[in-house]
Specification:
By secondary structure, this protein is of the alpha/beta class. 47% of the residues lie in helices and 16% in strands. The protein is built from 15 helices and 13 strands. The strands form four sheets. The protein has a seven-stranded parallel β-sheet with strand order 8-5-4-1-13-12-11. It has a two-stranded parallel ribbon with strand order 2-3. A two-stranded antiparallel sheet has the order 6-7. Helix 2 packs parallel to helix 14, helix 3 runs parallel beside helix 5 and helix 7 packs antiparallel against helix 8. The protein is globular, with a radius of gyration of 21 Å. The two termini are 26 Å apart.
Length: 340
């Protein structure tokens, strides 16, 4: 139903009108990685290389001018219509191998928010890899999941509820381990229990971030690397560690690229106003969220919304977001809700 309503809106001229009405607002696109494993996994986390290349071609076809963060304030005050920024979280290997060539084909600049621990320590990103392994379990088969080496009792995974409970338990177990070497041993055991080929996963770098060589290469080719914390976290063992995480992250990126990050992305989009003084103390100029919306001169620089694009976002939905139609419908819904 949504698809057909958007098609009607487009061909009745509402997309054209929305683009005109929102022409001074910045579109900040949010991507994560490119899936390099078997089949497809993820929606907003991973996109296929072909889908991303198609999105970049559409931006060129539709005439959206792609700018950098350093140009954003000039864009708001200038004559550009519908300025667009491309942001990519985490810094996955597929960002270098597949996204970068697509960006270069169209001459588009992009910002990568790099989390640096797994960049320097090349191994699968543990929580994401664990999530993939549990997603591979066929709940109709009544699989018994058992990790005796880690004192985890047998559990039959026969529903989405039990799958979720087991994943939460495994992630909690992972967080309790002393170091990443132990967590990687846990991942290997989980792979064995879920019939996921651990060797293929690691050789194919399904859950690896860019390595230092790839980061340096991407920086030379025009990618701007910005801050995303060192270990993709803002707290550890119940204690706030945002300042330390940002500081370590900035130091690593500066060492890798020769440039000092001044922009930031909240890990998993979780943030509060209490974080803003820390960002200021770290000389961070802006911070992006996972909230959906467009950006103008009234937007708080530490709470920048973005347009989240994903594998299963249809072309008409993507076009509706880019032209501003979806943003205007959200504004109308908020106004109606306030009056009720």
């Amino acid at each position: 139903m949504k698809k057909y309503l958007l098609i009607i809106a487009k061909y009745s001229g509402l997309f054209f009108l929305a683009r005109a009405l929102t022409a001074k607002k910045i579109r900040v696109l949010a991507y994560h990685g490119i899936w390099v494993g078997e089949g497809h996994y993820g929606n907003f986390l991973y996109m296929s290389a072909d889908r991303f290349a198609n999105r970049m071609a559409l931006l060129k076809k539709w005439g959206y001018p792609v700018i950098t963060f350093s140009e954003q304030f000039e864009a708001i005050e200038g004559t550009l219509r519908c300025p667009t920024m491309i942001t990519i979280d985490d810094g996955w290997h597929g960002t270098w191998s597949a996204m970068l060539p697509a960006l270069e084909e169209h001459g588009f600049p992009a910002t990568v928010y790099l989390t640096t621990y797994y960049c320097l320590n090349q191994a699968p990103v543990i929580d994401v890899a664990l999530g993939y392994c549990l997603s591979a379990v066929d709940i109709n088969a009544g699989k018994t999941f058992h990790l005796p080496a880690f004192d985890m009792d047998p559990v039959t995974i026969d529903s989405e509820i039990t799958r979720g409970k087991v994943l939460a338990q495994v992630k909690e177990l992972s967080a309790s381990l002393a170091n990443d070497e132990a967590r990687q041993r846990l991942l290997k055991s989980v792979c064995e229990q879920t019939n996921v080929n651990h060797n293929e996963m690691t050789r194919g770098r399904w859950f690896h971030l860019m390595n230092p060589m790839e980061v340096r290469d991407a920086a030379r080719r025009g990618i701007k690397f910005e801050a995303h914390t060192h270990c993709h976290r803002t707290a550890h063992m119940g204690e706030d560690c945002l300042a330390e995480e940002i500081s370590a992250n900035i130091d690593c990126i500066r060492e890798l690229t020769g440039e000092t990050p001044r922009h930031f992305c909240y890990p998993s989009g979780v943030y509060s106003e209490n974080m803003w003084p820390v960002l200021r103390s770290c000389d961070i100029a802006s911070a992006t969220t996972t909230e959906i919306g467009l950006v103008d001169d009234k937007t708080n620089p530490y709470a920048i919304p973005r347009i989240l694009d994903g594998q299963y976002v249809t072309e008409i939905e993507f076009e509706a977001e880019m032209c501003g139609f979806s943003e205007l419908t959200r504004v109308v819904r908020r106004l109606v809700k306030r009056k009720q």
